[in-house]
Each structure stands twice: as structure tokens, then as C-alpha cells.
Amino acid sequence: MILSASRRTDLPAHYFPWFLRRLQEGFLLVRNPMNPRQISRVDLSPGIVDGIVFWTKNPIPMLSRLDALQGYPYYFQFTITPYGPEIEPGVPDKRERVIPAFQQLSRQIGSQRMIWRYDPIFLSSAYTWDFHLSRFREYARLLAPYARECTISFLDYYRCMKKAAARLGLERPSPARQAAFAQELASIAREYGLRLTACAEELSLALYGIEPARCVDSRVFSQLLGVPLSVPKAKGQRPHCGCVESVDVGAYSSCPNGCLYCYANHSPSAASPAHDPSSPLLLGHPGPEDQIVPRQARSCASAQQSLFNR
Description:
The chain has about 300 residues and is α/β, with parallel strands linked by helices. The protein is built from nine helices and eleven strands.
């Protein structure tokens, strides 16, 4: 079983103490977003968890506590974009804090466990084509020695962010502009020896050397564990998503980052009062009408190989 921590919230930035407590207690609860009265009980035993994918824009709160993850293979999907606080109000300054944190984290765990995400890409009067190219070049120069690859994607419009997008004049580039833009990004990436991939994009960018990304990637964990993993392709993701199956341990509308383009955050201000670090749920507590069901999970490596290598 692979854990995703989390597409729904910046767990490393805001909920890492809770997550460590759940690892210590050996389980956590996840509420079904489609059926809120149904709760899954997820076993966190190291023999079952093949790996953890951390998604973050700010891992600073966890940098001094990585030793607590011993026994769990993991890697990072680390987003660094050029947007300011009017777009990403809860994210620290990129040059002063976030980029140094990326570099420090890479030095601690190795560049093979670091994926830099430059996404989503959109255009506006403030964030022009030339601005993106200039900032991408700057970031690539600073991050390439510390990352295994860079993943890009273009803005997707979600209902929850349409008003903000209209107010700020955010524009998804046309397919032709996406292709031209990707070609220039690929050229910059090659200059710095950085592999470039694209997340769930319908437009094929293979002509420019940009392959489809696998953000939750069993191959990375196979390399870390030294054993092959057999993990099915994820269901319920976007049509061009290359991810394998994982269990997301986060909750919607729980991320204080408040990024205006985020599909998972409808009410960030409600998150903090609902979070109890001692609860097995990220937000709130199980109620009398909730049904808690053990999630059937197992390691995706063979028992003999898994025991030998861990």
C-alpha cells in the first residue's frame, strides 16, 4: 500500500505532528468525501506501507523530525511556483525560505527522493510568458542539482476557483501556446540536466522530450526498497493521470495555504478549529452515526522480498 500525504492538503507544512502520532499509534482514519458517514481505518504498519508520497509547498516544520519516518520509504512532490501572496497567501517567500528548504531537504534525504513541481502554469497580466521563462530558468539553476525531475502542468479550471480566476485574470494557455511554452521549458531543463515530465496533460509533449509524469510512482519505491512492486493504476483520477493506486490520508478543505487555484480547498478558514492533533481523523472526531470500516490493505511486494529488504 502506498500512502499519499496528501493531494488534499499540505500535510508536511501544517499537520506533520498529527501524522507522526498516527504512525506511532499504528493507524489513522480517513473520511470518505463522497459518503461522509463512512470512515476507513487505515493500518500504518511498516510491513503494509510500501511507501509515502509527501506533497508540499513548505516542508520546513518537518525538517528536524525526518528520523521519525525511519522504516517508511518516502519521497516528495515539492511545488515551487513563481506566484505571490495574492495567489498563494499561506506559502512562505520562495527565494528566502522555500528554495533553501528544498535544498536542505535534498541534502538530508538525497536528490532521488525530490521531485520539483512547477505547476499549475497560468498566464495573467502579472505572470506573463517571459516572466515564467525567466523564473523557471532561475529555479532550475537553483534546484536541478537537488532534484530527480521537474513536473509541469497547466491550469485546470475548477468550479471553486472560477471567481478568483476571473477577478485576477488567470488564463490557461491555448494548446498551441502550451506546446510552444513546453518546448522552451524543455530547452531550459536540458541546459541544467533536469528531466522534465508533464502531469495529466491531454496534449502530448513527447516531441520536446517531455514524458507523462507518474506522480505516485511505484518505480521510485521499488528503487528505494530494492524489490519490485506490483501496484495497479489509480482509479478515479483524470484521464491522462499516470499515477498508481494510493490511499490519501488527507481531508478536503483543510489546507491553510489558501492557494486560489486549488481544487481541494473550499473553506481553508474552517480547517484549524476542526483539527485535533490527538484525533485519528485529520479533521474532527468520529461521531455516533459514523461507520468505521477497516480498509483492506497489503504490501505490494512479495512477503519474502519485503521481509528481506526492510
